[in-house]
Structures are given as structure tokens and as C-alpha cells.
Amino acid sequence: MREGTGSRLVVAASGPSSPGLRGRGMEPEASDEELMQAVAGGDGEAFAVLLRRHLPTVRAIGWRMLGSAEAADDLAQEVFLRIWQAPEKFDAGRGPFRHWLARVGANAAIDRLRERKVQSLDDDADGGGQALADTLADPQPDPEAQAVRVQHLRRLREAVARLPERQRLAISLAHDLGHGNMEIAEIMGVSVEAVESLLARARRTLKERLRQELVDASASRSTASRHEDGAR
Amino acid sequence: MSGQVDRMEISAFRRLLDVHGSDMARWPEEARVQAQALLLSDARARRLLAEARALEDLLRADAPPPEGDLAQRIMARVMAGDAVQQGGEMTQGRQPVSVRRVRDHRRRRMMTPWWAAAPLAASLLLGVWLGLSGALAPVEQVLLADAADDLAFIMEVAAPAEETEGELL
């Protein structure tokens, strides 16, 4: 979209001070459920607020489940367009919007994984070819440390990609979205015990597959922590 | 409660780490107390905790890159009424009420005959002549400018909708 030609809806999407929402007695701080009610009535500004608020959630699921930023973005587009086109599928009586959204995102991601498996079993091999160095959340100043970090993340992605779908999803909901085990159970529609089992198996497998990387990371963590203590 | 804390086995500690992660605030209360005691006395427990934290750090570091203009792109598709594939079928596109309202408004305006603007245009010409001749006070000149805006608006909405549709996106 060209700058300067955005409608009022897009303005609302990019900032919390939407006069349109206020004019209708609906502050941008309105709950997700209130916003969804407005979306059901065709309110694009309410949708824009929800989109801003929850886009990172769906992208995080897509990133962990599908392994590339491009796939995560495609997933987010599909999920939010679905929500826009069929908002009545959300039932506020059955739990909070964010749980429903995570479920919709997870189901869409699993569908895509299954389509991908049908198309090519080799596609997942390098996590969608994402340039790891460009995506580091904590780039290292030292090139050598950066290279080691990139290698660790590559191994992590390979290890995560080899987890069964449901274990991968449980890991994403716990670590990327910060949900507790009970919330994960609600989102995945399984018992808490099942979630505990999924998470325990996933974490154990990841630790086994990443043993050396974790030893290195653990050592550099304690070194960094000692340096910080020394600096104080 | 006595001051005595039951000793936790290392296998139970490992299991709790796998089930709940390294943030002990998420562990059951009783297990947390036992785990703290074990950490003080057992180097293997400390090693396991460090390993769990390292895994979580790695997962945290592997975050998606910034989303860029993705939200704007999604909104553009919403505004355009794009359809999306669902379960092998295309759903019908849907547009926000504000876009529909503007379009309906334009359609209604387009039904207004061109000659409806003729009296306003005539009075505008008269006003322009009066203004140029210096016969109007400043307030009246402002009113005249407003009338010119109104005329421009009427001509704009009478234009084919396709010509101005892009403004909404």
C-alpha cells in the first residue's frame, strides 16, 4: 500500500488512537471479545486493532511450525482473512479469543505441514532456507560468536522440525507464546496430562539432539553471568 | 508443617523440568520447595537446570524476524474484499462496512441528474462576478468559497466510482 493513500481503517491499524472506534464508544483498549463482536458487524477498524494486537501470535506459531518467515507471513494472512470472512465462528462462550486464535493458527499450520509433506518430503530440510544470520533476535558483536550462534540455531531448527506436529505445537505454545500447560490443553483440546506428556517428550528429545549446543550455550551463559557480576 | 523437606530424587527433578520447564514459579508448590533443597545439595540438578535454561534461551533467540508491512498488506486485502481458500473452496469476499457505505453513498450520488447542480453553478458564477467586482464582504467571500467546494464535491461524486476507488486503499 502506498504511503499517504491509506484509509481511516489503516490509520487505525497502525496506532492506538482511532477516532472511529472512540466515536462509537469503543476504545482501542476494548477486549478482544468486544472487538470480535464489532468485526462480526463488518467493522474494519475493530479488525485492524485485533490484527495489530495478535499478528505476532500467529506469526510465532507459523515460524515454529513451518520454519520460515515467508511461510509464517502466508499463514498469518490466511488466518486473519478467514477471521475477517467468518467471524461468527468465534464463540465467546467457549473461551477467550486468544485461545481460539491460537487454535485456528495451529490448525492452519498443521494443514500446511500436511500439504507440504504430500508435495515434497524434502522441503523441511533446512527450515525453508531462511538466512539464519539475518533473523537472530540477539546478534552477537563478535563474528565468531555470531557464527556459533547461527550454527546452534540451525541445529535447533532441524531438531524442532523433526519433532512430531503436536509436540512442536506444544513447544511453540509454551515457549513462543508463553502459555501455561492448562491453557495449552484448552487450545489443543486435550487433557493437561496429555500436554505434560507432549512437552516432556519434546523437551527431552530436543535436549538429546542438542546436547553439545546446550553445553556450549550453558558455558557461555555462565561466563557472561560471571562477567556481569565482575562488572558490578 | 514441620521444617523437614522430603528429599526429591534427581529423576523426579528431571521429570518436572521436562513437564513444566525451568521457571519454577510454574511448578507445583510442594515440588518447588523440594527442588530448591535439591539444587543446593546436588550438582547434577544444577546441571540439568542449566541445560533446560539453555534450551529455553535458544528457543527464545530463534524468534521470527520483524513483520514489516504485513499488517498493512492484510488490511489491503480486507479492504479489497479478497476471498480466501478454505477447505478447497473459495469463500466469498467481504468488505468493511465503511467501504460499503462509501460505495453505496457514491451509487446514490451517481443517480443524481447532472442538472441538479445547475442552479448551484449559476449562483456560483454570479457570486464570482460579485466577488471580483468587490461588492461582497469578506464573510460572504468565505461562503462563496464553500459553495465552490460543494460544487466540486458534487462533480467528484458524480464521477464513475472506479476512478476514485483506489483512494480507499
What does this structure look like?
The complex is a heterodimer of chains A (232) and B (169). Chain A has 232 residues and is mainly alpha-helical. Chain A has 2 domains: 1-126, Orthogonal Bundle (Rna Polymerase Sigma Factor, Chain: A); 131-232, Winged helix-like DNA-binding domain superfamily/Winged helix DNA-binding domain (Arc Repressor Mutant, subunit A, Orthogonal Bundle), CATH 1.10.10.10. Chain A is 72% helix and 0% strand. Chain A has 12 helices and no strands. In chain A, helix 4 (44-66) packs across helix 6. Chain A is globular and about 55 Å long. Chain A starts with 7 loop residues before the first helix and ends with a helix. The radius of gyration of chain B is 36 Å and the shape is rod-shaped. Chain B is an all-alpha fold and 169 residues long. Chain B has a two-stranded antiparallel ribbon with strand order 1-2. Chain B has 3 domains: 10-61, no CATH class; 70-95, no CATH class; 96-168. Chain B starts with 9 loop residues before the first helix and ends in a 5-residue tail after the last helix. Helices cover 63% and strands 2% of the residues of chain B. The chains are: A mainly alpha (232), B mainly alpha (169). Chains A and B meet through helix 1, helix 4, helix 5, helix 8 and helix 9 of A and helix 1, helix 3, helix 4, strand 1 and helix 5 of B.
